[in-house]
Amino acid sequence: MTNFKYNRWLIGCIIVGLIAALYIGWNRHIVEENNMTVELVFDYDDIVELARIEGVPMQTVMEQMKDAGVSSLAVYESTLKKLSENGKAATVSGSALLNSYYSGLLTEPSWCQLIEKGLIVPENIYIVCHDETTFKEVKEDLERRLSEDRISILQAGNVRVISAKANSEKVLKWNLGLSTEEMRIVNEAGFYIVARPSNYQAVTQSDIGSVFDRLKGFNVSDIIFSGDEVLGHPDYITDTANAFQADELTLGLIEHPQQLQFFKQEGLMELVKKNHYKAARVYSIPKDEQVKMKVNQAVERLILTDEERNVRINLMRIFEKPESGMTLLETNLKYVKDVKDGLEEKGFTIGRAGTYELYYPQKICFILLTVGAVAAGVLYLSLVFPMRNRYQYMLLILISAILITPLALGKGAIVRSAVALASANLFPALAVIWQMDRWRTGKFSSNMPLAKIMVAGAVALITTGFLSFIGGAYVASILGDVEYFLEIYIFRGVKLTFILPIILVTIAYLRRFNLFGGEEYSGNILGQVKKILDCPVYVKSLIFFAVAAVGALIFIGRSGHTMGVPVPAIELKLRAFLEQVFYARPRSKELFIGHPAFMLAVMAVYKKWPNFLFFVLVIVATIGQGSLVETFAHLRTPVFMSFMRGLGGLVLGAGVGMIAMLLAHLLYNLSSFVGRGTTKDE
Hints:
By secondary structure, the protein is an alpha/beta fold. It has helices at about 10-35, 45-55, 60-70, 80-85, 95-105, 110-115, 130-145, 170, 180-190, 205-215, 235-245, 270-275, 285-290, 295-310, 330-345, 365-385, 390-410, 415-440, 450-480, 480-485, 500-510, 525-535, 540-555, 570-580, 590-605, 610-630, 640-680, and strands at about 35-45, 70-80, 90-95, 125-130, 150-155, 160-165, 175-180, 190-195, 220-225, 250-255, 280-285, 310-315, 350.
């Protein structure tokens, strides 16, 4: 029997790295705890529409919304269409004016005189504003969008008319600029303004200045850009960033519907960096989803999103249908109040969106973590292919030196990602291998009472889980800075962490156990592989592998946000229940798959089950350990929540595993009883 030795110096390097990881983790926890203010935002236009539908004065609706918990109102740029609907401006095409004149329908003398003088052009659009402020802003915005030489002012009696050389249908929908009147109304009602400007075509420094000049004097909390570009893209993003910093504004980053980084806007990432990461993640329930939801479901969604994904701006949409027994206004007021109350119960405050401080761990900590991860890699190699200690130290020094050099020079982004990837895969594998070695060298009685086997299984599971937590601590700390909190950068190796630990454990298993049982085993991996390949293929074998392949596809697809693998309704209800019961809902892969399989693997050791069944249980158990570490790879999630999620999964998973053990015991006894009965009949 091959004797696998655990090099104490390698373990020492891992422990030193763990100390550095815990130090970073604690500082990260403090940074996250200092960012607990959520901004509840409604669109100003939605408030206007709600007041119209309910027949209630807009001021009353705004007062009630503020009392319910709304912090801010989002103000979008005006359009000629919107101004026309609001009665602020009237627009008409030149062709429509000429048709009315020649048909005798145009009776206003001043307009008739303009036509008779040849000043009305069919291709132009003509705008009449009903107040001086609107006239000034529309004229300024059109000049910026079209250029000054395409804008002229006509006089129709006592009325000034803006003449614009532009397609009348398209210009009606153009963004023209933020309305100072709307912003004044929002501030006077006691709300912050969330500005939603768009970029200019062929943007200039003057255009950028005009946007921020219009915001002067108003209480603006954040800017969330509309459209596919940030203001200033592509050549003047630095000017936009300077304006942000001068006004101490927060940049809103709209989370992508697939929950992976952000809604694509050209120049966004560059602007975040130039604004020194003074930014907040924004979440809005997609409109096509919200129409299918009840108020309580939307409330749960927002609270969970804020808690688990570090979202600090909730861009809320109005519910367009009232709940039973309530008016539409009452429905939306309840929506806001329930979100506010739920967030405050979770320890959040409501107000201007919180942002992270510029947190970057010390370089020495990254170096210690890197050495620890390299030590874990060398330790794994020594546990699969035993080698002399001096070769282990040579590998440790050589690989560490290669990786530490760029870190010391301050250019270690790739190294940090590599260390995170290695940690996420190596530590759960090492934890399971360590436990396999305990099973391999220990003595286990098949007559052990079931209750004691259950306790032994729970202890082994929690011990192995805490060893896997080391990998989680490494991942959470080596990537533990503000750029990862905001998801400017993301951990790219998530999918690999679902597969690689299984491969690593499989190799180690084949070095330790004879998959087919029987004679003394020498640890010949290639011999076992050859024996597997030489096995005859039966239909039942094909069915088994087909089921396994489908299971693997579902497993990987369920682990991301892009595969579209549906979640059963009963599981959604169970998730909701667990979210209410636990500080952080345990992951299903751990709770119902990995950890119960681990407990059954312990039972297999005591009951001397076939080696192949034991192998399958060990591999499935590895899924749970890998998932536990992978939880920490979601850097947007607070590190304390990731820890509590994994801990809850271990405790509850042990309970589910005990139930699985009991069922397996009953099934074994039942099959034995049936077998004895059959023998007697024969």
